[in-house]
Amino acid sequence: MRKFLSKLTLTLPVLLVVMLVNYFVDPANLFNKGKYERGVAGILSQGKYATNVTNYDGRLLQKYTIELLNHKPDVLVLSSSRGQFIGADMFPGKKFFNAWVQSAAIEDFLAIYDVCEQQAFKPKEVILTLDPRMLNENSPHKMWHLVSEHYYSMLRKLNIAYRDSIKPDEFNAGTVSQLLSLSYFQSALKNLYMKQTSYSPSDSLYNKGDTRAPDGIMSYGKKRREVSVLEVRKKATEYVEDPVTLEKNFDKVTFDKISAENLNTLTRFVDYLKAKGVKVTFFLSPFNPVVYDYFKTEPSYQKVIETEGVYRELADKTGSACIGSLDPAGNQLDESYFYDGIHCNEACVRLIFNKEYKH
Amino acid sequence: MFFNSFDFAVFLPIVFILYWFVTKKNLKVQNILLLVASYFFYGWWSYKFLFLLMFSTFLDFYTGIKIHEATSRNHKKFWFWLSIIVNLGFLAFFKYYNFFIDSFTAAVSLFGLQINVWTLKILLPVGISFYTFHGMSYVIDIYKDRIKPVRSFVDYAVFVSFFPLLVAGPIERATHLLPQIQKKRTFNYVLATDGLRQIFWGLFKKIVIADNCAQYANLIFHDPTQYNAATLVCGAVFFAFQIYGDFSGYSDIALGTARLFGFELLRNFAYPYFSRDIAEFWRRWHISLSSWFKDYIYIPLGGSKVSLLKRIRNTFIIFIVSGVWHGANWTFVVWGGLNALYFLPLLLSDRNRSNLEIAAQGKLLPSLKEVFNIAVTFALTTFAWIFFRAASLKDAAIYIKGILSTSILSKPQAFPKLTFAFVVVMLIAEWIQREKTHALKFDEQQPAAFRWMVYYAVIISIVVFGYYGANEFIYFQF
After folding, report:
1. Which chain B residues are within 8 Å of A180, Cβ to Cβ?
2. With an 8 Å Cβ cutoff, is A4 touching chain B?
3. Domain that includes residue B408, residue range
4. A242 and B219: CB-CB below 8 Å?
5. Per residue in B210-247, is it b (16+ CB within 10 Å) or e — as a string?
6. Is B189's CB within 8 Å of A11's CB?
7. Contact call for residues A245 and A342 (beta carbons, < 8 A)
8. pLDDT tens, position by position, B194-237
9. Cβ count near A80 (within 10 Å)
10. In this complex, do A189 and B470 lie within 8 Å of one another by their Cβ atoms?
11. Residues B134, B215: one domain?
12. Do B103 and B38 fall into the same domain?
């Protein structure tokens, strides 16, 4: 047994290399929370683009960007990545900021809006990108934990009682487990191989790497921007065939119940905005036709489809406008309007806003 | 819990340490540990279905004793059929209920009748086909007086639910595994190191080969109408390597893990893609299932000692049952039937046992004839895999129609070169080692530096080139 165990230790250097590379290359900036995001926000506050931005916490970035923003926007977008391309140029003559965050939940909307209020923002128009996932009763998402204090602050303003409070969990077991993660190791190697440098200022929105703009939007890197229809289809196919991807995006493979609590919070938030005289518009970002067709035919995704009706009903009830549709057929959108299974591109957003948004 | 998961990487060393350092002095306690660990392993996936596994285990344990103790033929028969019916009943309910209902509705609608029937949202318990067959073989063997029932429930429960084989086999026999469970085990360095090597080879096949092949095959099979014939052929070939890497990789991990605990499980794969005819392929692919069907269906039906017509019937029965075992879909039935058709010429010409040894045994390279036969056999099995992979018969027909077009000579629209390179590496390694049980089986005579170089190459390939998205083992669904 001793011989066996001693030989087994000869494989440990591999494990050690994995841990060291994961920690020091740290492609997702897991072990250096906040530093990266402050740096990017600093560039944006100078009115420049920040390119080569990868693997950062979008919530922290938006918080720092808003805190450093040198104008108070008239139009504010609260969105997930499915509304990340709603840009300032669609609102000529208006001060604008898109405060989207990846995989946004209603908690994020509240938290980000609270950050805005702390900066004395008084937007006249608020656009909310509403995703089906936001109403999933089973949603386990806690990505908003880094801005949780703002979420609870906003809940208090809305007079919504809450029981548990989640604190920012900056260095948890999940983070530690990434030290041993092989997929994280592969990302680190990819970073090293591609000699991926850190973020840097740029004068252009369109670069080789992902680029953040001072108005909050993001432009994908060249490779993803110039994705072919075939690749888009591949991504959409992978999306519908990979239950974990679905789980990531819709929390549970079976989205079987619409959350009354989330709907209530959203309603109260819209009412709060309305009471302040803010014009509220809901934006329903369309899905890739392959993915939407899957949702239509797959019984366990009927709730995803149903959310559109719920959002439209809420728009009617609160006197808000509702533009776009989860169904790409509504605007005759084929796969060329998408980057992957769930993200429509700039042309798609522009088309919907030009056609439906009332300035 | 999946073998290729972080959870298992934590679970296995803990059980290993408890097994060899804490409980090794007492066989009973060691077996209890194995049982608890196995139930934990299964319950990690679904604790609810753990009760089904426990019930099935208890049923077969109890009926086994009752069959043995029965004083009359009728009593014996009663307990035997009780066990078989309940086992098959569970299988039929969880696996085939909706299939039967849908097929019945479709058949009735052919006559212009519309009926409303209940279909249920049934979640298939992982490994039900495997542990049900474990239990059934035990009961059948007692009924046929081949073995005596065990008196220790723990020993029997370990036989059914030993975690390395619980969810996807190999399908063990009581005569092979139970004596190992009942015997005191001592740590065997050679067995354990070989087990560890086999685990690494299995992980390589699963994570580097199967999961990377799956990325490509899934794309092609999802919408075959978008691709030219050459791409469709590539899609089918990569699926052939996906399913081989997936299932044989799983089996290697299972066998290797069992060896760490001092157990030798039945071999499940013996380089099937080097087979020179279909009969040889089926002696080398999922061996534990093929031999189960042979022993418990084919031979009781008369096997090959009956008239030619009955032999043909028996062949079709065994292949179609094998197809249905894999899943509740007509695609599996056709897949089974197709393999029976492939088998038929060999049966009729009495050449079904002409390739009992591995190809080019004792030589480095195969003869041209062997290369040709291996290629033809691979092509036939790959064609049959199209039905296995397709979601429906209609999808399979679309795929095949796409292949049968003039674009067969055009360039594939997409081709995963790196994955292909790894498939070639795997084939070369397995060809060189084909007379051994797995590709990393080295003896101490080979220089240590060479062996460690190979181990590191395999480990680094797994770490650097493995696919770490979500990919379960295909056979978990059966």
Report:
1. 6
2. yes
3. 190-276+355-477
4. no
5. bbbbbbbbbbbbbebebbbbbbbbbbbbbbbbbbbbbb
6. no
7. no
8. 999 999 999 999 999 999 999 899 889 988 888 899 999 999 99
9. 24
10. no
11. no
12. yes
Query: Is the CB of residue A10 less than 8 Å away from at least one CB of chain B?
Result: yes
Give yes or no for a contact between A179 and A185, defined as CB atoms under 8 angstroms apart: no
Q: Residue A187 is which amino acid?
A: S
Omega of the bond prior to B170 within 30 degrees of 0, cis? Answer: yes
What separation in angstroms does the CA of A204 have from each of A50, A93, A201?
Answer: 9, 21, 9
What is the number of other CB atoms lying within 10 angstroms of the CB of residue A98?
25
On chain B, the residues whose CB falls within 8 A of the CB of A185 are 463-464
- Which residue, among B218, B413, B451, would best test binding to A if mutated, counting the most A CBs under 10 Å from its CB? B218
B187 three-state secondary structure:
coil
Could you give the CA distance from residue B145 to residue B147 in angstroms, rounded to a whole number?
5
Domain boundary among B186, B204, B230: B186
Q: Are strands A49-51 and A211-212 parallel, antiparallel or unpaired?
A: antiparallel
Note whether B95 and B220 are same-domain residues.
Answer: no
Chain A residue numbers with beta carbons less than 8 Å from the beta carbon of B189 are 1, 3-4
Q: Which domains does chain A possess?
A: 13-356 (3.40.50.1110)
Tell whether B67 and B210 lie within a shared domain.
Answer: no
B326 assigned to active site = yes
Residue B438's nearest CA partner among B303, B243, B215, B256 is: B256
Question: For residue range B143-197, what is the model confidence (pLDDT) as tens digits?
Answer: 999 999 999 999 999 999 999 998 777 999 999 999 999 999 999 999 999 999 9
Q: pLDDT digits over A304-350, tens only?
A: 899 999 999 999 999 999 999 999 998 899 999 999 989 999 999 99
Check CB contact under 8 Å for A3 and B468: no
Q: Does residue B467 share a domain with residue B394?
A: yes
For chain A, positions 208-247, list CB contacts with chain B under 8 A.
230, 233-234, 237-238, 240-245
Q: Which two tokens stand for residue B139?
A: 């009961």
CA distance A311 to A79: 15
Tell me, yes or no, whether B316 lies in a domain.
no
Q: Which residues of A touch B456 (CB under 8 A)?
A: 14
B134, B286, B326, B438: which one is catalytic?
B326
